[in-house]
Amino acid sequence: MAKQILILFFLATTYCYSQSVYKDATKINDSTDYYLEIGLFNKEEKKSYSKAILYTEKAIEFAKKNKLSNKLADCYLQLATIFFELEKNDLAIDYYIRAISIYSKSEPKSNIALAYYSLGKCYLKKNNIPYAESYFEKATIVYEKLNFLEAIEVINLQKAIIKKEKRKYEEAITILKGVIENISDDALLSTKTEAYIQLGEIEVIKKEYSQALDYLNQAKYTNETSNNDFKLAKRIYKLLGTTHEKNNNISSSNFYLQKYVNLIDSIGKLNNSNLTENTVDKIQFDKQLKTIEQLDKERKSQQKTLRFSKLISILSIALISILSLLSLSLYKNNKIRTSTNKLLKEKNKELTLEKEKAERASKARADFLSTVSHELRTPLNAINGITYLLLQENPKQSQLDYLKSLEFSGNYLLNFINDILEINRLESDKVTIEKINLNITKLSQNIINSFKEFINENNINFHLNIDNYLNYNLKGDPTKISQILINLINNAIKFSKDGDVWFTISKKSETENNITLHFEIRDNGIGIPEEKQEAIFDSFSQGSVEINRTYGGTGLGLSIVKKILEVMGSEIYLISEAEKGSTFSFDLEFEKGIIDPVTIEINQNIEFSNEKNILLVEDNKINQMITQKMLERKGISCVIIDNGEEAIENVKTNNYDLILMDVHLPGINGTEATTEIRKFNNTVPIIALTAISLNENREMLLSYGMNEVITKPFEPEHLYTVVTKYLSNTE
Questions:
Q1: pLDDT over 90 (residue 131)
Q2: Residue 430: what pLDDT?
Q3: 557 near 491, Cβ under 8 Å?
Q4: Helix axes of 149-165 and 2-9: crossing angle, nearest 10 degrees
Q5: CA angle in degrees (0–180, nearest 5) for 713-665-263
Q6: Are 492 and 522 contacting, i.e. CB atoms less than 8 angstroms apart?
Q7: CB 394: neighbour CB atoms within 10 A?
Q8: Which pTM does this prediction carry?
Q9: What is the DSSP string of 241-282?
Q10: How many other CB atoms are there within 10 angstroms of residue 156's CB atom?
Q11: Which of 227, 267, 231, 235 is nearest to 14 (CA)?
Q12: Torsion sign (Cα): 270, 272, 274, 276
């Protein structure tokens, strides 16, 4: 109930519409709700009040046009709130009254109480105490009827402020203490903060400086516990500075006044970048100017139409007597041409609007999927990690089946999230192609070996055909090539149960420095109907619902293959027939490379001659526990710190053989902490732990001074391999 009160009470000041706007961009067309959400997003997230006013006025126009009286009242309420924040009290009062006049025609709801309360605050700012008290009382009556008791405490805060203005300090103190005592919901901590500030100001007036400092420190603590409102922080710092000065504590006074100045400077920069002083006046002037221009345009159009009509009349009279048939023909042709041009312009306008909608929908989809896939990685790391640890604890047979199912589900979900993130990364043009030495024969054999169990499960006869003379190194991107081959071979095996799969690599052409290879993956499985082949490479597309239910999968594999090949300057070809199998093929050009250095295998069971000292910087308690348990299973102990600031100071005074650094930390993040550590320590290995997002990549993280990157959720064996490698180097 408290959450609902706040949403209605502050008109979404504690609730951000940005995600819902993007999520529903494809569902909501021109409507009042759409424009209201866009306006609120610009006010709350972008602090662009001009755009907030623009979209709210669009909502008003739409509500008027469609006679949506309740929606129109909501629009007036939002516009009034914007003007109130811009300290345009007269405009705010005008629109609050408009909203109340509509709300009062129906049963009392929380919105009319909000309008009364806000109107009271406007009159309080104008120092019109009687009007302010009247509207606060009306708001209280409505909230009592609706049983919104905590909302009444916010109104009581304003009543206490009025008592203070009337110098009725004891009455004000009683009300303020009641507000503090009766507020229990964390969402109303800003109201409790204001109550402490008002108590502090009263005690300053009474020259009880010690008591005033107690209240102001309580206000500071409460504000920092909630959303740390910078406006409240500014007032608190200034009051603490002046009160300490009056209490003859000059050092504390200077400390808080300096924080006040720093905050004022930062707020000033923000305000200068988002809103000029005359923004509202300019908007009002522009509206009037547009109205004048529209009227002038209509007048000129009428004059032009009148002159044209007169001219047509004169010409018609003259030409009817001479060439009546010709005149009629020319008139009809002119009408047809005008109508056609108008129709073409309307169609072009419609096509432009549809194109813009499609682009917005595509961006909203990409942003949404990227955010969801990234945010799921951290809890999924906990699920997979705990499952792994439980499997290592010799569970009962009845528990083992459940844990195996959980492990399978976690891996399936991880693959699905990886596919979504890869699709978004490819569509965002943030993909770079590496050119490093690779042996295509060894790479292919390793991929087939990874499918050995899957091949046996599906009873597949697998045929690998690679030209013998390709047993030398090439320059390319092994990761991207592996993604392509894994997706295509996985599909061939999955859809060819009890059948055959052929994987062939052959030379297509060769020069002194380059070679072009032809890749082909063929199967004799269920095939793809001709009518489905054009759409099979679209995201989330499969042959049919029955195929999805029978074989599973995300429908992203072929889309990823197509997009990667496009980035690499190639394309995928498909030949298929239902019930007879499918053939996928593509060509790739490579530079001829040099021989790779000998790879040194790392023994994960290596024992260290000295006890190793590892620092784990991770803010998530579950991930702390999982990583610590995994390390302890290999006999490795670690020190845990949950933020970047303490990690930097700890490394200055302690020697570590290895640091595991989470990238996303509160305060100073992992990349910033690594940069600071590298200023005084260039030797300790630092390994990044990250649920890598669309805007991150391995090269970017390494550029901050990290030695290696492990992606969450990580496989335990991969963690052991990387940790063993760097601990062996320090050995």
A1: no
A2: 59
A3: yes
A4: 50
A5: 155
A6: yes
A7: 8
A8: 0.40
A9: HHHHHHTT-HHHHHHHHHHHHHHHHHHHHHHHHH--TTHHHH
A10: 20
A11: 227
A12: positive
